[in-house]
């Protein structure tokens, strides 16, 4: 009809005329191509994806699995610990080198006759001396803020030498204590009267066992920058687990043996009424000094090491960081044991104290005890008798 045609013409006229402006922020829905307004570039870049589009793998990567959460709890190295360890280890190197060189000279060249106690003391000197010789590389490592500069082979040898001789120092220190126990509690036993040669064979067997116990350190691969025998904050391998177990056992087992020796010697002295004799009283003083040095040098590192393992198992990252730094710093006390051992020799061997004073020029001629003099005179008579017998046979 004509009315409908007129309506159609008015609609076409309105559509062909100018379009009214749209409010800001709203797209023109009558635009022939509205798709550009819905393109990804129109969306904010910081909008997170919707939860429905997140895959399980993406969620695992963001939060971490339980195993990865424990593995990501790594303790950070402390520049303060490195700054303290470098001068402390340097001082221990100087003092230990002087003390153990003097001890080695006295025992090897000035002490006669050699007894079973002398053999164990010489083995202890060798262990301490070899450990001290490896400290300069550790000083360099901490001076450059825990950066190893000498290659993987040198790192393996350095860690092996330090661990082996530290264990040897503990073992022969315990052997000295047990030897004192045998002399007092079982004076007529065959072990108490063992010769120097037989004791040397026992010491050689102990050295062989110590090399085998620490041989795993020669097979462990380290990174190009780090050189540590322990790795706190990581899941330990079989080699690292063995190293940690050995570190704990070599503290508690010798300590138990030394305490047993002290209690047994004290009971023997009281039971036999030997309070007035110098020998048993000196044995108690030696063992008391050994326990004191042993506890001061090794207890801090063992305590902080165990605390670090517990903190890692509990995923307490802050506690792990603190305990690992304390453990790292307390390792300097384990090296201090090799510095203090020459002081123990003065308690264990009166002849060492006499020779040391003479070499340092602190006395014109220090007089030893009557027992020391009688022992030396008996050795001189036995030696002169052997020389005389040899001369008669030659004639």
From TrEMBL:
Family to which the UniProt record says this protein belongs: Belongs to the G-protein coupled receptor 1 family.
KW Glycoprotein (keyword) present: no
Main location group: membrane
Keyword Transmembrane helix: yes
UniProt membrane topology term: Multi-pass membrane protein
InterPro entries, per the entry: GPCR_Rhodpsn, GPCR_Rhodpsn_7TM, HCARs
Domain of life: Eukaryota
Positions of the G-protein coupled receptors family 1 profile domain: 99-345
Region annotated Disordered, chain positions: 1-38
Compartments, record wording: Membrane
UniProtKB keywords: G-protein coupled receptor, Membrane, Receptor, Transducer, Transmembrane, Transmembrane helix
Single GO term (MF): G protein-coupled receptor activity
Extent of Low complexity compositional bias: 29-38
Name of the molecule in the record: Oxoeicosanoid receptor 1
SUPFAM superfamilies assigned: Family A G protein-coupled receptor-like
Organism: Bos mutus (wild yak)
Gene Ontology CC annotation, any one: plasma membrane
TM region(s), chain numbering: 84-107, 119-137, 157-178, 199-219, 245-265, 286-314
